[in-house]
Amino acid sequence: MPTSTDLAAALLPLVGGPANVTSVAHCMTRLRLGLVDRSLVDGEALRALPGVLGVVEDDTYQIVLGPGAVARVTADFEARLRKEAQGARNATPVKLALRRVANVFVPLIPALIGCGILAGLNGLLLNLGLLPSLTPALGAIATAFMALIAVFVGHNTAKEFGGTPVLGGAVAAIVVHPGVAKVTAFGVTLAPGQGGVLGALAAALLGTYVERWCRKRLPGTLDVLLTPTLTLLVSGLATLYVLMATAGAVSSAIGTAADWLLTTTGALAGLVLGGLFLPLVMLGLHQALIPVHTTLIEQQGSTVLLPLLAMAGAGQVGACLAVYVRLRHDEPLRTTIRSALPAGLLGVGEPLIYGVSLPLGRPFLTACVGGAAGGAFVGLFAMLGQRVGATAIGPSGWALFPLLAGDGGLGAAVAVYGGGLLTGYAVGFGATYAFGLPRGSAASQPPRPGRPT
Q: Which residues carry out catalysis?
């Protein structure tokens, strides 16, 4: 038998999707739905679902699930309905585009993390002169993925945008193939890897559009032979003679801008990035930074932006600790904080954001102040020649320590990043304790009637 969550997920599309549901209720045995258009319901498929005992069409559309099960499925159905409705409201063209780009890079994060940790371990062994027979093997394992990351980006791009994944990977592979060193484009000899992940993304995206154009126009007998051939030829030539040079210039500009930003305006840049990252997450705009991080890791071995942005989580932790201290009589809220705090320390901030600071309002703003302070701390040391970078994206908070790299070595990077976290905790706590809650909600207020103490 399917779980209540699985059954709720299966039911929603069969009743016409979120837009077709106007009301949800249940009795002892039946899920009762108000529907806009019953012709959108697939009654036969509903009856065939494991767990569905029958369907009754009355003033409401009733799905018989049985006692006990109906309450669980209804709760999960309502939760899924709210989530999908919220997603539809937030589906602006910009957010949709950023989400699709994120879908290309997010599946790569586990490999980036694993390779980043192994690269750090290998560097430590080399510096200490330990296990010289093992370090070449570790080095090969740690760098192999990055050498071919363009292929994976191309594969995922084609998959996300409706093309054949292997063709996307094949087009993107041109970017890193050693043979491009023999190609001269407009008087300039290309270099393998020129354009990096951005070039691979553009190449696979172009290949996807060429493939889709061909499939709409070629008859089936020719499609099998000509579509893949034309896809590789057209998008491959465009990659070699246009996209690699263009994407290479953009990639170089990103690296140069990041270096300039930190060495020239590090403290200010850290303050702005650390302070604004939580609102960016709320708006979904942080996904635009994923290709930037990946480009920096590919170019320089680490992204210097991630440690600055991670300070937002430190401010969040500090703010929620202050709420915990101030509102000592609000036991439900304190329980939420206790359960969400370990995840927050490891860089997973959503439970604290949505469960504590955002509903309260002001603590969300003071958390941003803490993030700004932590970012300014890390950025200041970057101006002093102690830049800190992350060799992979995904982890944050304490989980980022194994992935740190810096101009002054691992020890200096850990010290600067740790100092930034402590600064974010302290300022987030202090700002929230002093300004983040109205005086009327301070710890001196007695417990409210009906609230557990």
A: 27
